[in-house]
Amino acid sequence: MVYEERNIWASLIVSVIGTIVYVVIVLQQADGGPLTDVDWVPIMLWVIGAGIVGAIVLSIVWGILAGMFDPDGVGKSDQRDRDIAHMSTRVGQAFLIIAGLGVLILCAFEADWFWIANTMYFGFALSSIVGGIASVIAYRRGLV
After folding, report:
1. Which of 32, 36, 88, 114 is the most buried (most CB within 10 A)?
2. What is the dihedral of CA 42, 47, 52, 58, to 10 degrees?
3. CA–CA separation, 48 vs 14, rounded Å?
4. What is the pLDDT of residues 100-117, one digit of tens each?
5. The dihedral formed by the CA atoms of 3, 56, 14 and 51, expressed in degrees to the nearest 10
């Protein structure tokens, strides 16, 4: 597995886990009540911060372990890696655009901040997850 693919896997794993953790904590905090009553801001910030740190740490540890087995292959990327990164960025950006439009619509209807922020949060999460999946598929099956 090449350097770029390892980083994508690290980000993908952390994104999925972080999204699940966020949803579970918010639902637990709601305790059957309205979701808009949950103090979601600190939960969201902690999950985002932990996700960033987690992805970095996982990538570093995975890179160290990979370096033990293949010291010459660590940190190298080529044109294929750049093409896959470009493709996955385009795929992921589609979800950011959809989320941005959703946020604009929610703002137009003066929705609660909870729904506006969570629409954007899940747009970022889907962008990361779907873009990561697209990259992994491209690494496994090639670009078509």
Report:
1. 88
2. 150
3. 10
4. 999 999 999 999 999 999
5. -160
